[in-house]
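To: structure desk
From: M.T.
Subject: fold request, one chain
Message: Could you run this one when you get a chance? Sequence is below, nothing fancy, just the single chain.
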Amino acid sequence: MPVLKLDDADIYYETHGSGPPMLFNAATATHGEVWNFYQTAEFSRDHTVITFDQRGTGKSPARSNDYSNKRLCDDAAALLDHLKLGPAIVLGHSNGGRVSQRLAVERPDLVKKLVLMSSGGDSNSAGIPLKMCMELVEMGYEPWVRWQCIENGFTKKWVEQNPAELERYLAVRLSAPPSLEVYLRHVIGRQAFNLGERVRQISAPTLVLVGDDEDHGPPGHQTHVYYARQLSERIGAARLVVLPDQGHYYYFSAPGLFHKAVREFLT
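Reply: Done. Structure tokens follow.
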């Protein structure tokens, strides 16, 4: 089992295929297995695909309480340095997009191209959101995560028409979840993210992706569509693509659409 041993964590990773390297950064407290539905097979045909379990998730135990954006960025950089595969095409989904933004700013030598998938931006509220706390108390941790995946991950139409596919996704996405404490520490790290004007330093060609159904959110919080437009304006070498009829997990609900957008960007 390939593991990168760091001072405070053991990062499990996988590599598939050969060719230009592609590193996938998953969403908040998410293991790398989610990329094995479609992306690993698709891109390993002509790339070296690198996936990994974030610290504290899957097969990556952590020995500290540091789940900050900086720490996750350093993990990704350490993995690319360890594999000697940089500069890479770096893809980051949701909070993984925040991690990828920082990687492109702090280690531009490791980022050849950047794909920001429904990536958030600077948070306007530190700490754990109050609404999240209330929902967790009312629903319980694992039922809440499942509800969030369904509510934000897919359009209502897709959920109604694809019940078996939904359960296939959830079986993997919700398998071996991190403890509630680890999950919340990831959330705290996510909420503290703030690159500010430094995001304008990103010089790598960048594809900003978002689903058109990601234009809603809790009161007082910006949406993924808002952040996608903001990032495409602030990053000089960015291209914005809005995927029609898609929620947050379009890499699963519409892999062909997602792959086409990425491949057109890469060529």
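Reply (cont.): The radius of gyration is 17 Å. Let me know if you need anything else for the meeting.
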